[in-house]
Amino acid sequence: MHPIIFAVLVTAAIGAIALNWLSAGTSLLVGIAIALVSPHPWVTQCRSYSAIVLKVAIVLMGFGMEVSAVAATAGTTFWITLLSLLLALILGWALMKLLKVDSQIGLMISSGTAICGGSAIAAVSQVIKPPAEKTVVAVTVIFLLNLVALYIFPVIGHWLELSQFQFGVWAALAIHDTSSVVGAAAQYGDQALNIASTAKLARALWIIPLTVILSLILKPKGMKVTIPLFIVFFVLAASSRSLIEANLVFDWLSDLSRYLLKIALLMMGLGITKQTLAAIDARPFALGVILWIALSISSLFLVYLIT
């Protein structure tokens, strides 16, 4: 399709988001529809810019939270986060052997399920140094499951009559990428969004001990472990809310974060291609699905235990 038509469709979608006509989930769906109907050469850019916009949205979201609430949520979810992480890694290893999935692909899918999707896969790939095609398989499996989670988790949450707190924690534990966590929680309610964002960022920090342990086992050369900067800025934003009297400005920045979240999800959808969907191998996909279902059920059980 002509680039002008693609540009018109994207502009119309952004306008609909600005007018608040599209929810977070619908924004992603519109992006996918545009990408499949109107193939374009900017797939890589859409994916990379989506990640950047999402991180900015998360940082701005911090201006709508009190740092004490952030700390309380992180403390409350520490043990169930650790338990769900260990379960995902151990079960992922067992399923990898059972299904005879390539060990590098299996480790990346298990890590992405256990911690935070694509970010965990990227961190682990720095340690195990897989071929590019293996990383693509792992990322694609996680990405497709994220799309499913974005839509079915709010439905299941309402069906189970989960509270805002329960759903926020469950989404943070059971959904892979931060984008889908905040997207699903945004559809459930503002309190769920705040809880999910905080718990998810606390979960993301487990990338650090995981990569350190892998590096000690594999001893790769030149591997560096870093703390994601957007998490640091999120904490600073939440801290500023408690220290500075500028609530009107902070409320505006918090509202802006929700707009940017929808833009990020739209761009994520624009990064989908027919080739991406056709490249999935059955065994890695089966590993991802079974592991994700097991983590979703077990983490929901843990959420019920603490509430």
TrEMBL record:
Q: Which UniProt keywords apply?
A: Cell membrane, Membrane, Transmembrane, Transmembrane helix
> What InterPro entries does its record include?
UPF0324_pro
Question: Please, which domain of life does this record's source organism belong to?
Answer: Bacteria
Q: Which residues form a coiled coil?
A: none
Q: How does it sit in the membrane?
A: Multi-pass membrane protein
Pfam families in the cross-refs: Cons_hypoth698 (PF03601)
Say which family it is in: Belongs to the UPF0324 family.
Protein localization:
Cell membrane
Identify this protein by name. Answer: Sulfate exporter family transporter
Q: Which organism is it from?
A: Pleionea litopenaei
